[in-house]
Design a protein that fits this description.
The protein is of the alpha/beta class. Helix content is 34%, strand content 23%. Strands 1, 2, 3, 4, 5, 6, 11, 12 and 13 form a nine-stranded mixed beta sheet that branches. Strands 8-9-7-10 form a four-stranded antiparallel beta sheet, covered by helices on one side. The protein binds glyoxylic acid (GLV) and manganese (II) ion (MN) (2 copies). One manganese (II) ion (MN) binds next to loops. The site of one manganese (II) ion has 4 residues, from loops.
Length: 395
């Protein structure tokens, strides 16, 4: 009997809000509550566990074979503020369910099997996919704002650099996740075999104008940073739609100085996040955004890149194994890309990666209404389990 729903409910004891949404932002007490729940389950399943400075939890179960490399399963335990139960935690629950089921069926793998619950996958001043980037050795000390962001959590850059792991003893990385879009749901399909994860590129865009009195400064004389930023956002959004149907741009944060009702804003800072599989498209968009900014004229714009996570491709052999596992279980499946970022992205720089998607009701995610039916969660866990069994037959 598949118990992935029960394991997910246990993790969901951490960070549940009164309105049914979840808030387990990185390094919060609710996040570490989830880590403790997962750690207890791992220990109960006989895994050796360890936590690292990045806040990740890791479990290890040896295999019976000699010199065989680990099959790693992972996802994240943090959530966006007021997010859902499924984004991230489902993949960790899926990994634990694989191990629980192996034991229920009296099976021991030839390969070691490992499960990661990563921290800080969601956007934060640390830059997103932080826990997995730390483990993959992709955090660099020159990341803008890193030192200050880590100080907030009592950490140093060196401690994070020390969280890097050697992956020469690992065979592959698998991640089970909700789709977070509406493709599978609308098509009535049950499993997505992911072929790639889009690149995520974030810029800090600052409009520098001049603060002045809101009553005495005539409209023609203003250097209003808010109005200039608003113009840039609207124009950038229009340009994005022209470049490519699957190119996306999000201005998700805004800060305004001095932030007073009767003062013209002198400085406005926003984040411009863009995503696509093809770097050429995001490069074209930022190039046009710079041109639009220069043409606005009333203020000056500073545009600096904060994060550049290139698109990655899933391993073709793993895609085949996942597709065959779904086929054997008689579960409908389709090959598709991921528009969301995942811990599999940094892992792809170290290991072959494979990702399994299940439907998200109405494509909702990063909100309290995020939902996947229990049967769909079981389907995903079934495909993951069969994938692991098939991979264990290989070297
Ligand atoms: C994470 O969910 C992301 O896609 O930003
Ligand atoms: Mn996620
Ligand atoms: Mn997310």
């Amino acid at each position: 009997m598949n118990q992935v729903n029960d394991i997910l409910s246990l993790i969901g004891r951490a960070g549940r809000n009164a309105d049914g949404s979840y808030t387990r932002t990185c390094y919060s007490s609710a996040y570490f509550e989830a880590v403790s729940i997962v750690e207890k389950i791992m220990i109960k399943l006989g895994m050796a566990t360890e936590r690292d400075a990045a806040g990740n939890i890791h479990g290890y179960l040896p295999g019976t074979g000699k010199g065989l490399k680990s099959i790693i399963i992972g996802s994240h335990l943090d959530t966006v503020p007021s997010g859902g139960l499924f984004d991230g935690a489902y993949g960790v629950a899926g990994g634990l369910e694989v191990i629980r089921r192996l034991q229920e069926e009296g099976k021991t793998l030839r390969h070691p099997i490992e499960v990661y619950g990563f921290n800080a996958e969601e956007s934060s001043p640390l830059g997103g996919t932080f826990g997995s980037r730390a483990v993959a050795g992709l955090v660099t000390s020159d990341q803008p704002g890193l030192e200050d962001a880590l100080k907030e959590h009592g950490l140093t850059v060196q401690k994070i650099l020390d969280s890097k792991r050697d992956f020469s003893d690992a065979k592959c990385y698998l991640e089970l996740h909700i789709e977070q879009g509406d493709y599978l749901y609308n098509e009535g399909l049950k499993i997505g075999v992911v072929n790639g994860i889009v690149g995520v590129i974030r810029y800090k865009v600052t409009a520098v104008g001049h603060s002045n009195h809101a009553g005495t400064t005539m409209m023609k004389n203003r250097k209003d940073a808010m109005v200039a930023m608003a113009r840039l956002i609207v124009e950038a959004d229009r340009r994005c739609r022209q470049i490519d149907d699957s190119l996306v741009l999000t201005v998700g944060t805004i800060r305004c100085w001095p932030g007073s009702e009767n003062v013209i804003p002198g400085r406005v800072e926003c984040t411009f996040e863009m995503r696509h599989m093809d770097k050429g498209k995001t490069d074209a968009l930022i190039c046009d955004i710079r041109k639009i900014a220069n043409a606005i004229g009333t203020v000056t714009f500073e545009i600096t890149k904060n994060i550049d996570k290139g698109a990655v491709y899933c391993d073709e052999h793993l895609m085949k194994v996942i597709g065959e596992a779904a086929g054997r279980a008689d579960i409908s499946h389709v090959v598709m890309p991921s528009g969301a970022g995942h811990d599999a992205n940094p892992m792809a720089y170290r290991l072959p990666i494979g990702m399994i998607f299940v439907p998200s009701k109405e494509g909702l995610s990063h909100c309290g209404e995020e939902w996947t039916d229990p049967e769909d969660l079981e389907n995903g866990a079934e495909v993951l389990y069969r994938t692991v069994l098939a991979l264990d037959c290989e070297d």
